[in-house]
Specification:
67% of the residues lie in helices and 2% in strands. The chain is built from six helices and two strands, in the order αααβααβα. The N and C termini lie far apart (58 Å). This is DUF4254 domain-containing protein. InterPro entries: DUF4254 (IPR025350).
Length: 204
Amino acid sequence: MNFTETAWKVFNQCIEDYHVSDNVNSLINNPFEIDSLERILYAKNWIDTVQWHLEDIIRDENIDPAEALQLKRTIDASNQKRTDLVEYIDSWFLTKFENITPKPEAKINTETPAWAVDRLSILALKVYHMSLEANRESASDKHRKNCQAKLDVLLTQKEDLSTSIDQLLADIENGNIKMKVYKQMKMYNDESLNPILYQKGQQK
């Protein structure tokens, strides 16, 4: 089983586990061994799955404004955790390939392996939920047909993205691509970098 096959299997297990309770406040129960790649991938998809449903909830037109504000802050915190974990996965790959010497003509890819994995994790959620819609008995035939067409596209995208990720990892391992990682350096959650936050602190 290659990397993306493993990742896809883990992502779908995580999504199924979440939907047992289907509650954004459910606590993660990661079944994989500590320090294993599978455990990291499961944790990544759990964040994505919870955030997927938080994004659904906040779009309720009748939501209480105070609840919406709290949800927005929860989503912001989740985004930060997601970014941190993506960077952790890239660190895992850097360690894996630390003894690889890139060829002199090695290229630099526009996307790191972990950010491609991030897209695969989100894609697993799209496939899961589009499949539900394509088979929802309470929906119209037209709705199910439209969703099946979209699902077919998503499954093709899954094959293409999986192939691209596996090719990227092979190219890094063969020295054809040089792996470089730049931290996201997000500013809005940092009290020393977000002017709204640090100016408020100066006014006290």
